C-alpha cells in the first residue's frame, strides 16, 4: 500500500487547513457588504478560527500549542493588513480569533481521543 491511513489523514488535515486559511483571508480582506449571515462578527471570527485550528491537532496532538500560536498570529496579521484593503482593524476580532483557535484545538484533541477510530491513529 502506497499510502497508509495515517498519511492520508495527514494530507487531508494539511490541505483542509490551507483551504480554510485561504477562505478566511478572502472573507476578512474583502470589502464589507451587508451580511445576510446571522450572528455577530465576533461569532463569525470565533467559528472561522476554530475551524482553522481544528484539523492539525487531530493528526499531531503535540502541535496543539504551536497551532494556537500560529492561528492567533495569522489572525493578528490579518488585522494588521485589513486597513490596506479598506477594512478596519479590531482588537476584539483578534480576541475572538484567539478564543476560536483554543476552541478548535481543544475540539480537535477531543475528536482524536473519543471519535477517531483506533485504526487511523
Question: What does this 3D model show about the protein?
Answer:
26% of the residues are buried. This protein is mainly α. The chain has one domain. The chain is elongated, with a radius of gyration of 16 Å. The model has no long low-confidence stretch (mean pLDDT 90). It comes from Puniceibacterium antarcticum.
Strand portion, in percent?
under 5%
What is the chains' assembly state? Answer: single chain
Total count of strands: 0
Terminus-to-terminus distance = 17 Å
- The gyration radius over C-alpha positions equals 16 Å
- Low-confidence segments, given as residue ranges, are none
Give the total of domains.
1
User: What overall geometry do the principal axes of the alpha carbons give?
Assistant: elongated
Task: Count the DSSP helices.
Answer: 5
Structural class: mainly alpha
Helix content: over 70%
Question: SSE string, helix = H, strand = E?
Answer: HHHHH
| Biggest sheet record | none
What is the averaged pLDDT score?
A: 90
Write the layout of secondary structure elements.
Layout: H1 5-29, H2 41-53, H3 55-59, H4 64-81, H5 91-114
Helix pairs in contact: 1-2, 2-5, 4-5
Characteristic key phrases:
5 helices; 0% strand; mainly alpha; elongated; single chain; 121 residues
Tell me briefly what this model is.
With 121 residues, this protein is mainly alpha-helical. The protein has helices spanning 5-29, 41-53, 55-59, 64-81, 91-114.
